[in-house]
Description:
The protein is α+β, with helices and mostly antiparallel strands. The protein is built from 22 helices and 19 strands.
Amino acid sequence: MKHFFSIVLFLLLIPFSQTWAETLNTDSVLSQSSSAESSSLLLSDNNSKNEKHPLPVKEAFELKALSVDGETVAVTWLTKNNYYLYKDKISFVAEGARIESAIFPKAKLKEDEFFGEVSIYDEPLEVTLLLSDITSNPINLIIKHQGCWSGGVCYPPQSDTIKVDLTGSKIYSSTSSEQINTSELKVKEKFRQGGLALFFAAFLAGLALSWTPCVYPMIPILSGIIIGQKQTPSNLKAVLMSLAFVFSMSIAYGLIGATAGFFGAGINLQAIMQTPWVLVVFSLIFIFLAFSMFGFYDIQLPSKFQNKITNLSNKQSGGNFIGVSIMGFLSALIVGPCVTPFLATALSYVIAGGSALKGGISLFAMGLGMGVPLIIICGWGVNALPKAGPWMESVKQIFGFFMIAVALYLLDRILNPLVSLMIWAILFTYAPIKIGIFKNLTQEINIWNILFKALGLIMFAYGLLLWLLVAKGGGDIQKPLDSILYGETIEQSKINKFNTIKNEDQLSSEITKTVNSNKLLIVKFYADWCITCNKLERVVFSNKAVNEALKDTLTSTLDVTDNNRFNQSMLARFSLVGPPALLFFKNGLEQRPYRIIGEISAEELVEHINNLR
């Protein structure tokens, strides 16, 4: 019983949650370089005394390789001031020869803000390679490395190929990682170059993502499936069902990673699954499941099929292992797509690397990490659920309302914001009344019954706050009180209008205006199905201070709701995984270090714009 109420409390706190992972979303921006240079993550404020913006990676770390003699190659990085390389990120693979050893000079120790104590080179570096078993000349030397700018930008891992003529000192220029056909490398070599480390890093990133709102809707889905059975499942069976759900969810993410690695940014699987008809159909499924929780009908197979299945397993009303697996797979694609800096960075690396294998494995591991809380909450928590009786009916009703909440969560992406807010207000005020929070305590008075009433009253009070937001004309559903007391929204007719860009000529024209007018251009990547995009529209771009800051700027929108060729090409051109994203242009050039990926507050956006002027 104790754990059951913990589950309910956790679910009730969903709308209020502002986790540390969301803070990372608002405090960090994703800076992505040109297509030949892959992409990079802006990890902190730009505070270098000598430069305002980082150099392109090829200029910051100019790379050369030459043959000293027939069996020795010298690799040199002409590292610029205020830049440094990580020693443990440097590796070599020779095609046509075997590298016996790599001789490094002594590195410096640095207390890195992000990786702890690391060995770095902040001056020009030369590494000597001793070769053997040479079978061809010239050889292809594949060099992997990663560095940072002291102003706060860490470049993504680089992979360059240089041809080295072992008979002389001829130097060949490097080619970018996107020109390398990574499928020619052996699978064994791929894993040797950090495959296991990549798996665990992705798993840890998934754990961090598990505490964002992207994962919350999956909790009532899985819990509802488990609770929806006629007999309360054993603890083991609940854990196994949770594992099946998470494993299938991870397979879906792995498919996204493999697709991104194989096709690049050309195919966005999650975007395809966000079309309105898919969202409506899936929402109707959850509403259908909710009404079964309310007792209007039982979801069962025809008796002929039930008899066959009984020979293999017990009858299940809420779902079997196949059903829960299918629901886990679809939930990853439809219910939980969020473009956070974590996910955007991971997919950017996958796209730049061009490896379907690494992309699939890394995002599969990320999915497993995201599923850990689901297994704990929905698997082991089932042991505390009420047994058969009146309590069980109340529990089913509660999870029925959670199913409706998930359906509304999906429809949020296509409904009018004010209409959506009204439906949320109805749900949060009607559900507590329906489950009986205002009825007298006729049952035995104990701490759990009192807590149940208290939680219901919190839900009801939250619903009343939402009605106040409706009367106010809108606001942030996650922070209703702040929106009521401090939110300075303006009338819809006075909100700054963003020009919609429908082709490349329009985009070029808008960028050209920044040269002639010397104004700042903001290009917003938006989609109807993007929940964070809609939140930004409701809360940030309706804010009075933001609209004041936008008065002297040029503003345009790239609506990527439809996954058509033009939208795909725009995402690929700017190395973006998906919306939301804000790009800033001055004097005809994008200010890449100032890109914003994901969520940002109104105050932060105003400060961001003022800093760019």
